[in-house]
Amino acid sequence: MAGKKRGALFLDLDGTLADSGAGITSALDQVFNALGTTALTEAEKRFIIGPAFQVTMPVLLGARGLDESMSDSLIREYRRIYTAEHLPHTPPIEGIGAVIDELAASYHLSVVTAKPVNQAVVAVRALRMEHMMEIVIGPEPDAPTPKARLLERAITHVRGVRGGDLGHEECWMIGDRHHDIDAAVEVGTRSIGVMWGYGDEAELASAGATHIAQVPADLLTLLG
Question: Where does 7-19+90-223 sit in CATH, by number?
């Protein structure tokens, strides 16, 4: 993948490449069920995909009248369940595999995700996309990191692969939540918000997405 390519695509994982929502919410519902509290609402299921759990878990606990100091221990229990029962079976978004395969011929591809990096590597392997990715960037499990910093790390890596001539105008951040677009705006790359994940068009547009893709095949048109 070290040959000269047109630019670099930095892809969010959950909701962009991976149809991982059902596994994530199922594992979290198991945690809440063991506490004897209510399952996730539909709005909460959308809310939790994208940000780090260190951000969302206290909000979920507060909504249930539970002590937010439980957050770290519940995140650990969630991760235990999710890693054992769901992560190795992470399915791809329908239609994304063929699109990524085609884009890999023209672009350097990397994953940039808020998912802990050890989980992200397993998920990308489950998607059978690891051979197409220059690098998988995510935070350490207990060190949530702003997505803009993760994007910068990925750009630095690909710039090294490319020999230092990768400009920000050649880089695209692609994701389904405003966090992805926010990172692109902060770092200075272009961006594509995708509509098959957990955000909506208003969220992506107001964050400043360069383009919005309705279906995976749109990426080929926008980037072709």
Answer: 3.40.50.1000
